[in-house]
Amino acid sequence: MESKNPSSLSLTLSHNCLPLTLFSLFLSLTFFHGHGQEDQILLKIKRQWGNPPPLLSWNSTSGHHCNWFGITCDSNSIRGISLSNQNITEKIPDSICDLKNLTHLDVSYNYITGEFPEVLFNCSHLEFLDLSQNYFVGPIPSEIYRISELKQLNMSSNNFFGDIPSGIGRISGLENLYLHYNQFNSSISPEIGNLSNLSELLLADNPFSSANILPEIGRLKKLTFLWMRGNNLVGEIPDFFGNLTEVRQLDLCGNRLSGKIPVSLMSLKKLEFLYLYYNNLSGIIPRPIQALGLINMDLSINQLSGTIPEDIGNLKNLTNFALYRNKLTGEIPLGLAQIPSLYDVKLFENKLTGVLPPDLGKDSPLYNLEVSENSLSGNLPESLCASGYLDAIVVFSNIFSGALPESLSNCRNLRSMQVHLNKFSGEIPAKIWSLEFMEVMMLGNNSFFGQIPAILAKRLTRLEVQNNRFTGNIPSGISSSVNLTVFKGSNNQFSGQLPAEITALRKLETLLLDRNKLSGELPAKIESWESLARLDMSYNELEGTIPESLGSLPSLNSLDLTNNKLSGEISPEIGKLRLSFLNLSGNNLAGKIPHSFDSPAFDLSFIGNPALCGVIVHPCEERTRDSGNGLPGYLVAILTVTGIFSMVMLAFTIATLFHRRKIFSGEDPANWQVTSFQKLGFSETEILQQLTENNVIARGGTGEVFRVAIREEVVAVKKLSKSEKRNPENEKDFHGEAKILGKIRHSNILKLLCTISGEESELLVYEFMERGSLEDCLHGGQGALMAWPLRHQIAIDVAQGLCYMHHGCSPAIIHRDVKCSNILMDEEFRAKIGDFGVAKTVDKLGQGLPMSAVAGSYGYIAPVI
User: Fold this and answer.
1) Which residue from 126, 277, 551, 773 could staple onto 862, CB 3.0 to 4.6 Å apart?
2) Model confidence at 788, in pLDDT bands (50, 70, 90)?
3) Whether the bond into 357 is cis, omega within 30 of 0
4) Please, which residues have CB within 8 angstroms of residue 337's CB and are 6 or more apart in sequence?
5) What's the CA gap between 826 and 770, in Å, rounded?
């Protein structure tokens, strides 16, 4: 073999290495050139996004772009942009996909509007896309499959609508799909079953067209989390769920599913969270339960029957167990007490019998126990609070008996104890009254006895001990419970005087101490009952006069002092109260009834006070004195002249006022009559004075609506036109409407405060709704504020109002004209039903009555504000 000399070899190597060197140089130049381009692309994106403040660091003087805010890189090339919650308002820039290596884009929790950004179709390597919590609208484009490398797509909490297109089923690598909290209102494409790698599918709270659960979902063998709450699902739960062996969380609540729960569902070994509540499921709970990994199980608000499975005790990981509002019978299994992680038990509103498991709470961190409205009996277990975690005992409306467990005295975290409507007896363990965190003590309708101790829990908000056998004084120490809003002590054997300290409770709204043996005088000075709305001290042995200070209570709406030994005159200050209920019957009161209560509305309020006089009892006697009896002649003359002059001036003043009122009312103000349904903070004169052209906010076929501001209160006043008033049928309808609407008390129905009737016109005074009608909000300038969760809440508000009208009113009220213009919105977008123009009531036989009582055409005209 011939050898080469060194110089020849060197030349050969140099010749062979030259292409490699040139190639390396080319790669280096390309690398630096590409990264220089990424800088410029980011700066362009910044400009197209309107230079938002969070992107101030995106500039050529801030060092390498991989260190800029929100940027992540790999091998010095941009892989991710994360700009969550940065107040971005502009659409996604067209140049975003010029970043050829971009795999991760997160613009969640911003204010981006418009339709799905189709510019993203050019991001060929995008794997993670998060558009959640923005204001996107419109359908998902069918070509979304062009973002073919996606593994996670999050478009939740926007305003997307339409269907879930078939194109999504072509993104074969998709693992997580989050579309919850939108407005999808069509269908889910069956092609979704092609997503063989899908692990999490979240579609909750979308109003899809009514449909069965897609059979194709049964093909998603890797599915671990399926969330289809509130998707308008119907039919039965299919058996194929038993084949989804990887499922850990299944949520189908809030639909209209019916039939039985499939046995296969309870055989999923990896299932941890099962939520089927708020459907129409029936039959028994499947057994055996082989899903031994269950942590949360909620089958509430269905039509389930039969017993609770005995093998529930095998679920050693179970923490939350809810079966409330079903038709379950039988006893609570003893095994429930053997679950070491049991934390929250809700079995209320069933037909359960027997006793609570004796060891309940002994071996678990029990936090909440709710078994109310069943037929459970026996004692409460001593071990309920063995762990010290117990927060609430809610066992009312059963037939429990015996004394409360002494061990509850050491239940340091106990906040709510609702044991009313049972057959409990004995004394309340002393320490329970003053537990540090106690807020609610509802002990009413039992046979408890003993005394309320001097020291009560400082956090107490509700104390109900009515219909028991408590004795002794009301302790002055009750004033230390500064958050107390309700104190019900009716029908006991309390005695002594009502302590003055109780009047210092600023938040007290309800005080009921009727049917006791209280004596002495009511506190003469009221320190601060600024929130008190209802006071009932009837059927006691109270003496003295009615304190004048009661007249200063701004919120008092109901006052009952019936059947005591009160005497003296009713102070004119009491007449300043705006009461919907007053009863002072069966006392020894004397003198004149205050003018504001001397009307037929209070004709039963003063019975059994023979020394009282007024229009509604018997007229007060005219007491005249002989002008010459004991008076000098010159004084008689002076008084006579002065009297005549005063009468002339009074006549002139009345004439002036009459003339002024004629301007806005067209009739004698003396003929106006007020019928109040709520506590009023104004008089009819104050209303009438503001019925001017400048205050008109709406006009309709039956009259006008005025916006009237009186001090800190704003009301809406509907004034019927003269022609409408003179129609006898319409006048009958008006009074019928007022009678019915005035009795309605519901937070989602427009509140009628009072009516003011005159000879030629009628006024309806309503609470004022700041944002006008729902129609105004949707189509006016406020539509942008109404995201889907808010619209969902508005729908719930309306449904609750209608439910009350249909089932909570007697007779029932059928509105018959529910539309956007008849739904009124307050400042916080709470919805209330108004304008009962074509409503009907339904009698007990279920027949519709075309009822003037609900509103003819005289309801509220929505103000356009």
Assistant:
1) 773
2) low
3) no
4) 313, 357, 358, 359, 360, 361, 362, 363, 364
5) 5
Q: pLDDT tens-digit profile of 328-371?
A: 999 999 999 999 999 999 999 999 999 999 999 999 999 999 99
pTM for this predicted structure: 0.70
The backbone torsions φ and ψ at residue 506, rounded to the nearest 5 degrees and listed phi first, read -65, -30
pLDDT band at 737 (very low <50, low <70, confident <90, very high): low
| Neighbouring residues of 146: CB distance < 8 A, sequence distance ≥ 6 | 121
pLDDT of 601 above 60: yes
Is the CB of residue 116 less than 8 Å from the CB of residue 144?
yes
How far, in Å, CA of 402 to CA of 424, rounded? 5
C-beta of residue 370 within 8 angstroms of C-beta of residue 348: yes
At residue 118, what are phi and psi to the nearest 5 degrees? -70, -15
Strand partners, 534: 510, 558
Q: Which residues of 662-696 are buried (b: 16+ CB within 10 A; e: fewer)?
A: eeebeeebeebebebbbbbebebeebbbbbeeeee
CB 849 within 8 A of CB 839: no
In three state form, how does the secondary structure of 705-745 look? EEEEEECCEEEEEEEECHHHHHCHHHHHHHHHHHHHHCCCC
CA-CA distance, 804 to 782, in Å (whole number)?
28
b/e code 134-165 from CB counts within 10 Å (16+ = b): bbbeeebbeebbbbeebbbbbbbbbbbbebbb
Distance CA 164, CA 141 (A): 9
Reading the block at residue 5, the tokens are 């000399």
Supply the pLDDT for residue 579: 92
List all residues 6 or more positions away from 540 whose beta carbon is below 8 Å from its beta carbon. 513, 514, 515, 516, 517, 518, 519, 563, 564
User: Is residue 266 a contact partner of residue 288, using CB atoms and an 8 Å limit?
Assistant: yes
Structure tokens at 668: 């004698």
SS3 sequence, 349-371? CCEECCCCCCCCCCCCCCCEEEC
* DSSP designation for 666: S
Sign of CA dihedral 405, 406, 412, 415: positive
Spatial separation of the C-alpha atoms in residues 741 and 135, rounded to whole Å: 39
Q: How far apart are the first and last CA of the chain?
A: 104
Give the domains, in start order, of the chain with CATH numbers. 671-854 (1.10.510.10)
pLDDT of residue 623: 35
Letter string b/e over residues 45-56, b meaning 16 or more CB atoms within 10 A of that residue's CB: bbeebeebeebe
Rounded to whole angstroms, the Cα distance separating 844 from 629 reads 68
Contacts of 499 (CB under 8 A, 6+ apart): 473, 474, 475, 476, 478, 479, 523
- Please state the φ and ψ torsions of residue 135, each to the nearest 5 degrees: -125, 35
Strands 541-544 and 517-521, how do they pair?
A: parallel
Continuous segment of H or E residues that includes residue 795:
helix 788-803
pLDDT of residue 697: 83
Q: How far apart are CA 32 and CA 43, in angstroms?
A: 17
CA distance 259 to 380: 36
Contact, 433 vs 409, CB < 8 A?
Answer: no
The band of 818, judged by pLDDT with boundaries at 50, 70 and 90, is confident
Task: Return d(Cα 273, Cα 281) in angstroms, integer.
Answer: 18
User: Which amino acid is residue 458, in one-letter code?
Assistant: K
Q: What is the spatial distance between Cα 297 and Cα 246, in angstroms, rounded to a whole number?
A: 17
Among candidate residues 111, 124, 168, the one with its CA nearest the CA of residue 144? 168
Question: Is-contact 608 585, C-beta < 8 A?
Answer: yes
CA–CA separation, 595 and 598 (whole Å):
5
